[in-house]
Amino acid sequence: MRHRYLYLDPDYLQALLAGLDLMRIFNQLLLASGGDVEQTMEWMRYLQREGYIDERVDLEEFFASLEDQQMVGRDSDGSLQLTSIGERRIRRSAFEEVFSSLKRGGPGYHPVRSSGEGVERLPETRPYTFGDDLHRIDTGRSFHNALKRTQGELELSEEDLEVYETEHLTSCATVVAIDVSHSMILYGEDRITPAKTVALALTELITTKYPKDYLGLILFGDRAERVELSEIPYIQAGPYHTNTREALQLSRALLARRKQPNKQIFLVTDGKPSAITEGGQVYKNPFGLDMKIVNRTLEEVDLCRRQQIVITTFMLATDPMLTDFVEKLTQINRGRAYFASPHDLGEFILADYIRNRRRRLH
To answer: Cβ(309)–Cβ(263) under 8 Å?
Structure first.
């Protein structure tokens, strides 16, 4: 059974409509509709009827161009659906949306010239020590030190040499676990669409810049399941509880099969754990924090720590009881936690992903 949520962020849509970026409007509405092309087109027609899109804009011509570009096509019964070309385009659009936010002053994006394992030179320098790579010597600063020490005589000695600092770029295996419980579409805020946008942006980032990295995707409600990255546009939240423990169990199993040296779980949720699976049955309690559910979940958190899997929690709510649970989870795992809104979720996750691939070499 598919569950639709028709809330659309008016501020975000207004910004897109101001620039009349039909493609971005289409992509955003497509994610909100769970990948339903015909519903997306109907929403755009509705926006035009309501005066948000200029009546002079020929939407039918725009829709026809999507077919001409093979972004959408018709299945065997004639219904419109997204094609592989369309999926790539929407993935790229999500990345550009998040990346542009980083450049405007988010947590920060640092472009990397090489993928997988390697070394990148930093602008900072330090004194040379025996064994440093001579190619890393900062010639300008070294000569400046010599001139300063000798008061104008260019006599270079070892004590004058400075070398560039470097960072090691290490490959990562990452699982993004997205909460699809009912709260992700409640309380007048669509939280599932930003989570999907982040997953799309990460997919684009890793496949284009870090091809040696691994990215897996898990959805968790009453149960947890692994889904293919190609399914991201079609994800929808449902009438589920929050089985965080099973999400971590499945993530840990996926990461155990990977050879990358760094392993991490990005946990995107807005609710407390309210379900666990025992003996094939789901035990649920949506009221408060059930200590049986909490303790079983924290046991799984500790197993992740023992296997050197870092959990980074991106919490989309600030309820005090929930905050206490996340702080306990983070303390046990020795991981990280961010209390983000749906509007800056992508900035935090992409910046955190890139930053965690780096380790300074001394």
So the answer is: yes
User: How many CB atoms neighbour CB 175 within 10 A?
Assistant: 26
Find out whether 337 and 327 touch, Cβ atoms under 8 Å.
yes
Q: What would the two tokens of residue 205 be?
A: 């980032």
Taking the C-alpha atoms of residue 276 and residue 282, their distance in angstroms, rounded to an integer, is: 6
Distance CA 224, CA 282 (A): 11
Q: How far is CA 232 from the centre of its chain?
A: 12
Residue with tokens 């570009």: 69
Domain boundaries of the chain, sorted by first residue: 10-82, 123-165, 170-361
Q: Which structure tokens are listed for 361?
A: 């070499």
With contact defined as beta carbons under 8 Å apart, do 116 and 171 qualify?
yes
Q: What is the mean pLDDT of each run of 10 residues along the chain (362 residues)?
A: 50 58 88 93 93 88 93 92 92 82 46 38 78 82 88 84 74 92 79 88 86 93 95 91 96 95 90 91 89 95 95 81 85 87 77 66 41
Residue owning tokens 């949720």: 269
**CA proximity to 348, closest of 301, 308, 313:** 313
Question: Are the beta carbons of 20 and 255 closer than 8 angstroms?
Answer: no
Rounded to whole angstroms, how far apart are CA atoms 325 and 318?
11
Look at phi and psi of residue 334 and say left if phi exceeds 0, alpha if psi is from -120 to 50, else beta.
left
| CATH superfamily, region 170-361 | von Willebrand factor, type A domain (3.40.50.410)
CA distances to 36, 150, 175, 219 from 227, in Å: 18, 66, 11, 7
- Beta-strand (E) ranges in the chain? 72-74, 80-82, 118-127, 162-169, 172-179, 214-220, 224-227, 262-269, 275-278, 281-284, 309-315, 336-339, 358-361
**pTM for this one?**
0.73
Would you call 172 exposed, middle or buried from its count of C-beta atoms within 10 A (0-12, 13-18, 19+)? Answer: buried
